[in-house]
Amino acid sequence: MGLNKKPVTGMKDILPEEMRIREYVQNVISETYSQYGFTRIETPCVENIENLTSKQGGDNEKLIFKILKRGEKLDVANATTEEQVVDGGLRYDLTVPLVRYYSNNSANLPSPFKALQMGNVWRADRPQRGRYRQFMQCDIDILGEPSNLAEIELILATTTTLGKLGFKNFQIRINERRILKAMAAYAGFAEDQYESVFITLDKMDKIGLNGVKEELIGNGFEAASVDKYLKLFEDQDNTAEGIRKLADTLGDFLDADIREGLIEIIDSVEATKQAKFDMVFDPTLVRGMSYYTGTIFEIAMPEFGGSCGGGGRYDEMVGRFTGQNVPACGFSIGFERIVLLLVESGFKVPGESEKKAYLIEKGIGKEKLCEIIAKAQKEREEGRQVLVVRMNKNKKFQKEQLTAQGYVSFEEFFSEANIK
Amino acid sequence: MGLNKKPVTGMKDILPEEMRIREYVQNVISETYSQYGFTRIETPCVENIENLTSKQGGDNEKLIFKILKRGEKLDVANATTEEQVVDGGLRYDLTVPLVRYYSNNSANLPSPFKALQMGNVWRADRPQRGRYRQFMQCDIDILGEPSNLAEIELILATTTTLGKLGFKNFQIRINERRILKAMAAYAGFAEDQYESVFITLDKMDKIGLNGVKEELIGNGFEAASVDKYLKLFEDQDNTAEGIRKLADTLGDFLDADIREGLIEIIDSVEATKQAKFDMVFDPTLVRGMSYYTGTIFEIAMPEFGGSCGGGGRYDEMVGRFTGQNVPACGFSIGFERIVLLLVESGFKVPGESEKKAYLIEKGIGKEKLCEIIAKAQKEREEGRQVLVVRMNKNKKFQKEQLTAQGYVSFEEFFSEANIK
Predict the structure, then answer these.
(1) Is A373 close to B110, i.e. CB distance below 8 A?
(2) Using CA atoms, how far apart are residues B388 and B124, in angstroms rounded to an integer?
(3) Chain B: nearest CA to A190, how far in angstroms?
(4) What predicted TM-score, i.e. pTM, was given to this entire model?
(5) Which backbone phi and psi does B346 adopt, to 5 degrees?
(6) Looking at domain B16-344, which of 3.90.76.10, 3.40.50.2000, 3.30.930.10, 3.50.50.60 is its CATH number?
C-alpha cells in the first residue's frame, strides 16, 4: 500500500505519558511568565527562505528543511540549483521569527514588548539519542528595554519557572560579550581575531586551560598574547567581586558602566530570587550566535551535563529588518531537556483529577445506558474524570490495564438479563 | 538586506489579544476532553510523502507543502519530476497522522484508545479572508470501540466543550453513510454511481431540491431514479421519528441495526447533554471524505453560515497501515472558526489575574531597585501579574497604553534625587 507506520527519520511520536508532562510544563511556563507580564505570541512555522538564510542563524542555516515552490512557480525539469525550486523553509529557531514579527507588528505592540513563544522548530541534524529533528523551543524576549531591567526580569522569570517545576541547585552562568572582547583586546589580539579566539575559549570546559592554550598556539596566535590572555582565567573568582578584580586588571579596556551593569544584574537577582540557584560569573562563557551584543547567560543543571537553556542581549538584530536598531534581550528555556529530566526522574503531574472508569456490559438496554451516561456527565461536571467503556470478556485484565493508566476506581453496569 | 517583514503568503502572525483567546480555548478543550478520558498525543508536523499522497486525504492531497530532500539524496540538476526531489510533506490533517501513530504504537496504547490532538496543519489553498494556509486543528478520536458508545461520547464531549465556551442554540446534524447508500440503492442507482450522486446531494443547502434534480438529470441519471430518490427528501422529519419513517420506506435496503444504532445515539445524547443544542437527523449530510464508513456528523452554528466542525466513523483506515481493520470514530472541532467567532464577539477571557504595573524612574539606586523587584516577586508569588518597567518621559501616555493592555493599577517609584 505504500503506507509507512514510522514517523519520518529523526522525529518522534509523543505517547500519552510524556504528553501529560509536556502539557503540564507548558502550563507552568505560561502561567509563571504571564505573572511577569509576558504575553504569548505565535508566528507561522514556515518562513520565507531569504529570512532563514541571511546569516542570523549561524550553523543552523545548514540544517533547514526547505519547502518546494508550488504550481506554475515550480519547474523541476529546468532547474539546476536548490534555490530555483525552493521558496520557504521550516524555522530553525524562534528568534529570527520573533524579530520579523516585531518588525512587522510593532505599531500594534506595547513598548517594551515582553513576548513568550512556545513552538516547534526543525533542524535536519544527524539523528542521535535524545535529539530530534523536530523539537519544542520556549523563548521569552523583551524588546525595547535598553536597561538591565530586561536581564533581571528574564532571569527571575525563568528561574522561578524552573523552581516551580522542582529544579534546584542549578546555576545561571553569566558573561558579557563586551567583557569577552575587552579581555581579548587587553591580551593584544586584533579585532578580526576575536571570533576565532572565542571559538577556542568556548572549549575550556572540555579541554581545560592547557588545551585552550595548545589550540590557540596551534592556530598561529602569538605566545605572548596567549599567555597574557590565559592568565586572566587563572584563579578566577566567580562572584561579583571577581568581576571587579578582572575589571581592575583590564583597566581602560572595559567601561565602568559595563562592569556595574553586570554586577547589578547578579546582585539584584541574588537578592530577589524565588528558586534555589546561584548566579555565577563565567568569563569563559561564549555562546555561539554572533548576534549577541551584551550580556549572555546559560542554565547549568547538575542533573544534566550541559546547558538547559540560555540567552542574551541582541540589540542590533531588529535593525536588520527595519534599518533601526531596537534593544532586545531573550532567554530560551531548554524545553526538551527539562521534559527529558522530568520523564527520567519519574515525575508525576501534580493535581490531576481523580480518574474513574465505568464498565458497561454489552447488550445493556437504551434506557439503562442513558442513566449510566447521565451519571457520568454529572461526575464530570463536578470535576472528576470518567471513562465510559464497554466491559471486556476478560474483565480482570481490563481493570489491570486501566489501573496502569491511573484509574483508581471502577463501577460496573450489567444488562438486565444478567442481573436476573 | 533581503529580509522580509511579512509572514509567508497565506499565513499569519498571531497578536497577543487573539493569542490569549486561543490559549484559553485550548485549555478548555484540553480540560473538558480529559474529563471524558481523552489523552493528548502529538505527531510530527512532517510526514513521509507516501503517507500524504495515498488517497486518504481527497482533494487536500493537491495542497501539500512538500519538503525537499537533503544532502546526497538531492540532485536538482538531474531531476525531472517533483517526486525525485521530495521526501516529506507538512500534514494536511490530523487523521492520517493519527492512524499512522496508532498503527505504530498500538502495543503501548490502551484499548479503546481515546486520543486528543491539537496541532497545526498546512494546506496551500488559495488565500482568502479568514482562511489561512497554516491553521490549528483539534481532533478527538476513539479507536477500538465498535459500538455507538464512541459516537455518543464524542458528541457529548464536543458539545460540552462548546457549551463551556459560551455557545448555545447550535445543532449537531447527523447521518449515516449506510443510510445514504440505502437511499441511493432504493432509488435504483448503481453502486458505482453513488459517489457522483452524493457529490450533487451535498449541494442541497446551496441549490435546493430543484437544483439537485437538475444537476442529477444533467449528469445523465435516469429521471425515474432521480424522482424516486428526491421524493425521499421531501417533507423530511429531522427527528428520530423521521429516521423510523424513512427506514419504513427503505424496507430491506436498510438493516434495522443501523436504524436503531442511529436513533440510540440521538436519544442518548438528547437525554444526557449538558449544553443547549439539538440533535438533528439530516439525510442530505454527505461529508466529503471517502474514508467514512458509518455515522457522519457536523456542527451547525447559527452565528456562522456553515459547519464549525464534524466527523464520523472510519472503520477501515487503520487497515490501510496494518492490514487489520480497527473500528475508529472521530470528531474535529473547528478551532479557527470558534476562535474567529469569539474574537468577533469581543470575548473576554474569564478569570484572568489582576494586572499591575510598576513604573520605575530612570537613575534609581541599586538597593532601591532590589526592594522594588522583591515587592513585585512577592505579589507574583501571591498570584498577581506584575509588570516592572522603566517610567517613560511621557508618563501619562505610558499609563494610557498600559490601561489599554488591561493594567488596572499602577505604582510609581522615583529615584532618591527626585524625592528630595
Answers:
(1) no
(2) 43
(3) 28
(4) 0.94
(5) 70, 30
(6) 3.30.930.10
